Amino acid sequence: xxxxxxxxxxxxxxxxxxxxxxxxxxxxxxxxxxxxxxxxxxxxxxxxxxxxxxxxxxxxxxxxxxxxxxxx
Length: 72
Known about the structure:
Layout: H1 6-14, E1 31-35, E2 40-43, E3 46-49, E4 53-57
Antiparallel strand pairs: 1-4, 2-3
């Protein structure tokens, strides 16, 4: 991704259209193993130090979304 593309990328995130970016691949799984030779990765927007592998699991019904009154 080139520097001039970053604002367009961020705009797609803000508009909820990031799935339309050629720089994004969306993979839906209940469990995923990520293997990386890098010692530091970005995971869910946070920097994490790892040894070799990361196992990511989604817990069913673990996400709660609160919508204030009047939100539609």
